[in-house]
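It would be a great kindness if you could assist me with a short task in structural biology. The full record is reproduced below for your convenience:
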Amino acid sequence: MSDRRTLRRQILDLVREYHAAEPRRPFRPGEDAVRYAGRYFDASELVSLVDSSLDFWLTAGRYAEEFEAGLAAYLGVENAILVNSGSSANLVAFSTLTSPRLKERQVKPGDEVITVAAGFPTTVNPIIQNRAVPVFVDVELGTYVPALEKIEAARGPKTKAVMIAHTMGVPYAVRELRAWCDRHGLWLIEDNCDALGSRYSGQLTATFGDLATFSFYPAHHITMGEGGAVVAANDDLARIARSFRDWGRDCYCAGGENNTCGKRFGQQFGTLPFGYDHKYVYSHIGYNLKVTDMQAAIGVAQLAKVEEFVAARKRNHAALAAGLKQHEPHLILHTASAKADPSWFGFVITVRPEAPFTRADLVNALETARIETRNLFCGNLLRHPAYAGIEHRVAGLLTNSDVITTNTFFIGVYPGLTEEMIRHVLGTVDGFIASKTAR
């Protein structure tokens, strides 16, 4: 009779065989979809997933610990905290700033937080959910991130923090923004959900802010299915973030551990009896936002391929940029500043207002050819029903955010795209524009 170790090895070998047996067929232009994004994996992710399932450790465990350590090592930071989505990461990161432990720097209801109008909802939602006031600034067309001077002009007497995404993988002037925040005593949260592997002045994004966030949804640079992470610049912020993630408890023992602090039954908290079990003391109004170990197992396999994935995204983006350059009279193409080295999330296109066609026309041609497109998130967030009555402030005009709402979309650059797919995209755009500009 085989022992369990031998059986596990046999099962995992069969998983590799199963993946290898998947049929492959050539791409058929116009018939097969060219995805805007998607999971990209091989046998290693399946092996990790099945290996984790055999442990039957259903909450965060050894794979979660390995992923947190691996992400922290990749970024060169001390604290990476896994959560169940990028949206939860943003919620945990911003909620961290509301902790009474931060004393005079605590973000309280009514305090202002600078952000952008043309972004994803869950960058802004935690500000609103914590009863702070978002202050919206416009972004630049082409980069789709804000200019530093617009952020600086938005500061007011109630400003406590800045929370902005590196949209579509393009870093904003984060080194300069970090210095500005330091001069004015402001918190900085980098929403890095689109930007794993992006760099600014040679430094990885997510390493400038007091806190930073990641998403591991299937559309993102690496995936766990659902998953995300918070990066904290110091141990104090990390402990607060873990508290908000783990029900709001004060205890910071890892799962299955007891008495890490050495005084589990020897402390005074509020009006609780002296010695109240530290594992059941709550210092924040928190959540349960942990991942399962099976999700983390997929992430461990994906994390090993980050640089490969980033290189593929850069290669695909460059191919699209070169092929679409001839259409710049009609299209604003995706770009970045000289100091930015993006790990591109997608290729963003804005149809110029004076073009002889609309976004809808071009998107319809692409979708008809089975090429997936997506709008650039919300466009101007303030034009959506959910935000009609929120307390907010607008700094300056949102002219470009409105242009994005009507004229902007993006197509894919993810590693699953092939040269044949990119040729199909470029050929479709060429044919469409030729049909609209022929005399």
Notes: The two ends are 79 Å apart (CA to CA).
